[in-house]
Specification:
elongated; ten-stranded mixed beta sheet; ATPase_F1/V1/A1_a/bsu_nucl-bd; alpha/beta; ATPase_F1/V1/A1_a/bsu_N; V-type ATP synthase beta chain; hydrogen ion transport; 34% helix; seven-stranded antiparallel beta sheet; 467 residues
Length: 467
């Protein structure tokens, strides 16, 4: 015993990848924070993954490179890993372990919180409500993000998911209420980490952003810690600080791959695609930390971004994420090939809580019926495009050709926008009206007559013979 609750052991039995096995222990519990002192005086840190009688399995955050079983001192703290929380994180840039990399002092705070987080009693939850405006038309119009929601982005390798994640983090707002963003980059290349810092510099300088950057050459264990740090910071800023907090985490596939690597080092029996059998519950322990709490003004909203290996949506990471979350935004290789950014497949994308955050009193009265009509028209346009490939566009009816014109206008005028362009919601919905009005009024059966009268076809007004 070394005072203050710390327990010291020198009996390191085995080093296995990022894992240290210590034997002869007593009174050590799961998830305890550990300090490891090497023979040369260097200090590393870890967490207890498993305890079996007198043996503890520890994951080392900095990895076990250059470590030796002899002369290594392992100190158990008697408590879980805790970090300072509070407004001191705002405006800071840190690595995946929460250590400052912006040249400033270590982050400090009056309170400390466990990184693993405490379960939120379902009885205390308020349902998600009211929108988070991302400034991105295809999201705000058709898959509205709601405060307290978890809405993932499913991308394909090589598509600009990091660009979209940074754009959302840079320009999201909640209409004048206290708001901030926590951005967690997981397994990024140094070029991607530099890009994120550049794009988010303005919001960081304004004290509205916490930036955590874990790079691909950092120890694998750090990737498992980064999203938990981000959510711990966000929970305090939201539920104690009264802010609406948006947490953007990219790339969650890198997080899951780190889990797989650690699981293999522990010798666990693998499940599907060699991922551990507890992948679902582990992802749920992260995603379910979002929400709103009764009697408190803040909220935590999560946008996890992940790549689908091989474009396979049935891969365990997107598959399980889809079960836990409330919808998905799916990227399209075909839209990317057409030069559209962001390359979102609107028909495959869905926000199950959109009705909680859009419509009368929240966005605009015409928002929901307009979104429904756009999606219905897109489905018809896709059928027409497939038909045109079989019989040729010349054989299509005039109405069918109008659907193809609508489909092109939807991608070119509504979805496509610059990565640095933040569109107001009114501007987005007005663009949507101009796009849908390319169809004959007889096709707009999901829009009430009073809305059609309030948004006439401007081309027809200008030229009675148009169309």
């Amino acid at each position: 015993m070394n005072g203050g609750g710390w327990i010291d052991y020198l009996s390191v039995r085995e080093l296995r990848g990022p894992i240290v096995v210590v034997s002869g222990i007593n009174g050590v519990g799961w998830d305890e924070f550990v300090t490891i002192t090497l023979a040369d005086g260097a200090v590393r840190h870890g967490q207890v993954l498993e305890v079996d009688r007198d043996v503890a399995v520890i994951q080392v955050l900095e990895g076990t490179a250059a470590m030796s079983a002899s002369g290594t001192l392992v100190q158990f703290s008697g408590e879980s890993l805790r970090i300072p929380v509070g407004e001191g994180w705002l405006g800071r840039v840190c690595n995946g372990r929460g250590e400052a990399i912006d040249g400033g002092p270590p982050v400090s705070g009056v309170h400390r919180a466990t990184v693993s987080g405490d379960p939120l009693n379902p009885v205390r939850r308020d349902p998600p409500a009211d929108p988070v405006h991302t400034g991105i038309s295809v999201i705000d119009a058709l898959t509205t993000l709601v405060r307290g929601q978890k809405l993932p982005v499913f991308s394909l390798p090589g598509l600009p998911h990091l660009r979209l994640a940074c754009q959302i983090a840079a320009q999201a707002t909640v209409g004048g209420e206290p708001f901030c963003v926590v951005f967690a980059g997981i397994g990024l290349t140094h070029a991607d980490a530099s890009y994120a810092r550049d794009v988010l510099d303005e919001r960081s300088a304004a004290g509205e952003l916490v930036l955590l950057l874990n790079t691909a050459d950092d120890p694998v264990i750090e990737r498992m810690l980064t999203p938990r740090l981000a959510l711990t910071i966000a929970e305090h800023l939201a539920f104690d600080g009264g802010r609406h907090v948006l947490v953007v985490m990219t790339d969650m596939t890198s997080y899951a791959d780190a889990m797989r690597e650690v699981s293999a080092a522990r010798g666990e029996i693998p499940a599907r695609r060699a991922y551990p059998g507890y992948l679902y519950s582990d992802l749920a322990s992260l995603y379910e930390r979002c929400g709103r709490v009764k009697g408190r003004p803040g909220s935590v909203t999560i946008v996890p971004v992940l790549t689908m290996p091989g474009g396979d949506i049935t891969h365990p990471v997107p598959d399980l994420t889809g079960y836990i979350t409330e919808g998905q935004i799916i990227f399209s290789a075909e839209m990317h090939a057409r030069g559209v950014y962001p390359p979102v497949d609107a028909l495959s994308s869905l926000s199950r809580l959109m009705r909680n955050g859009a419509g009368a009193g929240r966005t605009r009265d015409d928002h929901l019926p307009l979104a429904e009509q756009l999606l219905a028209a897109l489905a018809r346009a896709r059928q027409v495009r497939e038909l045109a490939e079989l019989i040729g566009p010349e054989a299509l009816s005039r109405t069918d050709r109008r659907y193809l014109d609508f489909d092109d206008a939807f991608a070119r005028e509504l979805v496509n926008q610059r990565p640095d362009e933040a569109r107001e919601l009114n501007s987005t919905l007005d663009k949507a009206w101009r796009v849908i009005r390319r169809l004959p009024e007889s096709e707009l059966v999901m829009l009430p007559t009073k809305l059609l009268a309030a948004h006439p076809d401007q081309r027809t007004v200008a030229d009675p013979d148009a169309g």
